[in-house]
Amino acid sequence: MAKEECIFCKIVKGEIPAERVYEDDNFIGILDINPEMEGHTLIIPKKHFKTILDTPNSLGNEFLEAIKNVAMKLIKDKKADGFNIIFNVNKIAGQEVDHVHCHIIPRKENDGMKLKMINGLRDKKKK
Ligand code: AMP
Fold this sequence. Notes:
binds adenosine monophosphate, alpha+beta, 5 strands, globular, HIT family, subunit A
């Protein structure tokens, strides 16, 4: 997909509205339009890279910092007890938007969310 057509590039440029909850020099954080949980946030680099594999290592520290800042804010504002922090890489793994982004999904006791992989691992551990 050409950068000009990329929905996250358009959000970065302010051409499409989104609820920005975080911004620094190289990243924005927006609320996911179709959240798994209240507060589900996407961290998106302002520059277009397709996946985490295409993203320069030099952005690594700032990416981590953005993730941690948003997570701390969700602990404070949404009383989150934990998180699932997910990068979907390529279509086969569920990546729908070809502009790298990290999902931060806040979790609470008995929130009812089921992630197949994580629940599967928990089940195995119990045996
Ligand atoms: P992924 O499947 O990892 O590519 O995730 C893409 C995410 O972007 C999905 O969770 C969508 O709900 C979300 N999304 C798509 N369009 C928008 C938008 N305009 N504003 C906010 N979130 C969006």
